[in-house]
Amino acid sequence: MSSLQAITFDLDDTLWDNQGVMLKTEEGHYRWLLEELATWREIREEPPLALNYEQGVVDYLQRRRRWAQQVPERRGDFTWLRLRALEEQLETEGLSRSTALLWAAAAMNEFHRLRVQVKPHPEAAGLLANLAGRYQLAAITNGNIHLKRQPLAAYFPVAIAAGELLAPKPDPKPFLAALERLNVAPDRAMHVGDSWQEDVLPAQQLGMHAVWVADQGDQALPTRVHRIAHVKELPSLLEWIEKRT
Description:
By secondary structure, the protein is α/β, with parallel strands linked by helices. Helix content is 47%, strand content 11%. The protein has 2 domains: 6-17 and 119-243, Rossmann fold (3-Layer(aba) Sandwich), CATH 3.40.50.1000; 19-115, Up-down Bundle (Four Helix Bundle (Hemerythrin (Met), subunit A)).
């Protein structure tokens, strides 16, 4: 472990709690779309769309799922899925193709504005700043948060959006992409994340060290895998490991 050179991090539910932000973002961008589109059509003296929030959002979700089934290689690219679903829904409601494209893009811009309003754990920035003095750092996420706009972006010169690679975790490709950009061998790197299936197992199978952020878990841990209840415990874990090497 003394030869550890890099640490990669999952983002959602590892460096911040994500559930509340996603609920606000999912609801907010769709309500924004319906309200702004209604105002636009009223100004143009066009009749309102038949869409209301309750029925529209259910239809929107169904279209996203259908697109994921029809184009499985895009199943992890949530921005792409949302765009296609919104475009299709708006065209079905009678908007021209070009108008549907413009309004879907505008709604996704609002989505990303809301999505980056995450609140990192209070310890996260200081923790990353300290680690950056000793290790190369990277982010690997399945989420569709705008990586350059998220509040901890400055600490991650390497950031991998797995969905944009058409290979969401637990596919090894985003891990390998990060390692390649860091120019670090797997056994010289550690991955930190909250998901056993999407973070710990693929990292461990590649030969990386892995830290599972989970407040509960009683299964036996493979070699070079450790569990902590919160990311703030990571420095203590690293210190403990280094003392044993």
